[in-house]
Automatic annotation (TrEMBL), chain A:
GO cellular component: plasma membrane
Membrane topology: Multi-pass membrane protein
The protein's name in its UniProt record: ABC transporter permease subunit
Keywords: Cell membrane, Membrane, Transmembrane, Transmembrane helix, Transport
From TrEMBL, chain B:
Top-level lineage group: Bacteria
Listed Gene3D superfamilies: MetI-like (1.10.3720.10)
GO biological process: transmembrane transport
Cellular location(s): Cell membrane
GO cellular component, one term: plasma membrane
Name of the protein: ABC transporter permease subunit
Length: 311, 336
């Protein structure tokens, strides 16, 4: 470990003298690498398509996702689940609601849950991480013990137990549960990068110049500590989608399912999977694609922001 | 090494202590408190007061905390109120734990058995077909929800093809003797080979589903670690000394690359437990995962508490073992 670090430092030093793009910031060089990365392009395209779908869903969805199709409106064949037919390209679900419309509008809920959960988790993690990383000492030790305890419970179990506390089931329950699980992860990550910043030369220099502590924390330490956090946030979006789906699948989501959500659709499809697997497949494929999109973007971001890859 | 172990043990005690406070706070923060959870919202004030006195809720908070902890230490977490009404919560847990453990161990073994060799081979032939296929799979594998994969496997192999059983731990017709609660092991111990085979067949699909995420993670770590180590100076030195490829690979590359892999395997046990909740539900296995789902549905807090405490303890213990084995593999860590 020690040898690699030293080797790395020497390499970096050597590079910084000879590299043609000496004055280019990490962000700029990261963006240059991202633009050329096929992994990033595929991931970004997937996310772009789904964001577009979510934005346009209310306009393009052929039917009201909560409305039941009546006997005289559709053909139902031998079973109660309407097969694909005119006006209903994917058929209906087990309650006779238009499947395509539900999938299209489900993108809104799923993306909303993921983004809100990540933002809340990130916010909480920022507070914990900044407190621990900026003060150090016993504050750091105290905050980190809390984080350790939270991390010592498997995440889905923690999420389920948080969800169990709510009397009224709603999408909000899922958001809070998924968010709280992310807080210790963000907190720990940020604390590590902040501590590394504390010992760095530019922070020492700022302190020697008499810069105020708050300014040091927010202007000198935080911006430089954010790289790994951004990567984690992108990866967490993918996890949040999967975790939220898992919680909905366990029955933690909104009790009222007239507003569709993919995880919930997947959960309710399990009763009829033997006869109508398509009810599970369509929402599952959507979940996998979106999660994959965020994972790909996160992975390529990680590579791009890694100073080791700087050329 | 001894000091390191003692310090880690002290840390563990601290974590468990903090967890007990959190759980106690959690118990008290229930909407309406534990009394409402037991009596429902429409109980009369008199019956509420009587139950409060009976449960000791009228006593000072520190006394209550002490009695919660001292009872929890003896394994008394209260009585199940929903999953198996009337049974002590700990018993509910103990009855179901073997099923979950069996499934998790099987899944972890599957993941490790495939991920380490594949990761090693992928790193040695970097950019080859195996490398590319496994990288794509490990990316996709993380994005696939465990329960959907479980669905898919169940649909294809149990419903459509009918090769493997779709649910449960053993066929109901089999009257097997119970020794340990691990159905497969029981069959082997009592030499009821049919029962052991039947239990194994039942385990296959859920274990494969559960192993995808650990496989993806362990594969990636192994690959990265082997690539890292192959670049190290000591490998170059070994090569310069004229050691054969076999010796270099076994003694230098594999040994040193195993450090992060061991850690990852430990960390994955937590993920396995979470995944087991979902897999058990799809395959209708009555393990603790199902107890959690049911306990949540029916607001059975005693059962939920036992499961969370035990899961956390298992998790903390596994991490301790991982860190200790880490110190055994890497002598530099012992002196710190």
């Amino acid at each position: 470990m020690v040898t690699t670090q030293r080797k790395q430092r020497i390499d970096d030093l050597a590079e910084s003298g000879a590299a043609p793009d000496m004055g280019v910031s990490l962000a700029v060089s990261a963006w240059r690498r991202l633009r050329r990365s096929p992994v990033f392009l595929v991931g970004a395209t997937i996310i772009g398509v789904f964001v577009l779908v979510a934005a346009l869903a209310p306009f393009v969805a052929p039917h009201d996702p909560g409305a039941y199709m009546l006997e005289d409106q559709v053909s139902r064949a031998s079973n109660t689940i309407p097969p694909p037919q005119d006006g209903h390209p994917l058929g209906g679900d087990q309650y006779g609601r238009d499947l395509l419309s539900r999938i299209l509008l489900g993108s809104q809920q799923t993306l909303l849950v993921a983004v809100l959960a990540t933002v809340i988790g990130l916010g909480g993690g920022l507070i914990l991480g900044i407190t621990a990383g900026a003060f150090g000492g016993w504050v750091d030790a105290f905050v980190m013990r809390i984080v350790d305890v939270m991390l010592s419970v498997p995440s889905l179990l923690l999420a389920v137990s948080i969800g169990a506390l709510f009397v009224q089931q709603s999408q909000f329950t899922v958001i809070v549960a998924v968010a709280i699980v992310q807080i210790p992860i963000f907190g720990r990550l940020l604390r590590g990068t902040m501590l590394a910043q504390r010992a760095s030369d530019h922070v020492l220099a700022a302190r020697a110049l008499g810069v105020k502590p708050t300014a040091i924390v927010f202007r000198h330490m935080l911006p430089n500590a954010l790289g790994p956090v951004i990567v984690q946030a992108t990866l967490v979006l993918a996890l949040a989608i999967i975790d939220a789906a898992a919680l909905s699948f366990l029955g933690l989501g909104a009790a009222d399912d007239s507003t569709p959500e993919w995880g919930q659709m997947l959960g309710s499809a399990q009763q009829v999977i033997d006869s109508h697997p398509q009810l599970a497949f369509y929402p599952a494929i959507c979940i996998i694609l979106v999660a994959l999109g965020f994972t790909l973007v996160g992975e390529s971001l990680r590579d791009a922001l890694d100073p080791k890859n700087r050329r | 090494m001894l000091r390191y172990t003692v310090r880690r043990l002290a840390q563990m005690v601290l974590v468990v202590f903090a967890l007990s406070i959190l759980l106690f706070a959690w118990l008290r923060s229930l909407p309406g408190g534990p009394v409402s959870a037991l009596l429902g919202d429409r109980a009369t004030p008199e019956s509420r007061a009587a139950l409060e006195a009976q449960l000791g809720l009228d006593r000072p908070i520190l006394v209550q905390y002490w009695s919660f902890v001292s009872r929890a230490v003896t394994g008394d977490f209260g009585t199940s109120t929903g999953v198996q009404r009337g049974t002590p919560a700990l018993e509910v847990f103990l009855q179901r734990f073997p099923a979950t453990l069996e499934l998790s161990i099987m899944a972890l073994l599957l993941a490790v058995a495939f991920a380490i060799p594949v990761g090693y081979l992928a790193a040695r032939r970097r950019g080859g077909w195996l490398d590319n296929v496994s990288i794509v799979w490990s990316l996709v594998g993380v994005a696939v929800p465990v329960f959907f994969l479980a669905f898919l496997l169940k649909y294809v192999f149990a419903v459509e093809l009918g090769w493997l059983p779709a649910s449960g731990r053993q066929d109901t017709g089999i009257d097997a003797t119970r020794v340990t609660g691990f159905f497969m092991l029981d069959g082997v111990l009592t030499r009821e080979w049919d029962a052991a085979w039947n239990a194994f067949v039942h385990l296959l699909l859920p274990a494969v589903a559960l192993s995808t995420i650990p496989f993806a993670v362990i594969f990636r770590i192994t690959r990265a670690a082997v690539l890292d180590v192959m670049d190290e100076d000591y490998v170059r030195t070994a090569r310069a000394k004229g050691l054969t490829g076999m010796v270099i690979r076994r003694r230098h590359v594999l040994h040193n690359a195993m450090l992060p892999v061991v850690t990852t395997i430990g960390l994955q046990t937590g993920a396995l437990l979470a995944g087991a909740i979902l897999t058990e539900r799809v395959f209708n296995i009555s393990g603790i995962g199902q107890a959690v789902a049911l306990g949540f549905e029916r607001k059975d807090f005693p059962v939920l508490q036992v499961v969370i405490v035990s899961a956390a303890m298992v998790y903390v213990l596994v991490n301790l073992v991982v860190d200790l084995s880490y110190a055994l593999i890497d002598p530099r860590l012992r002196t710190r």
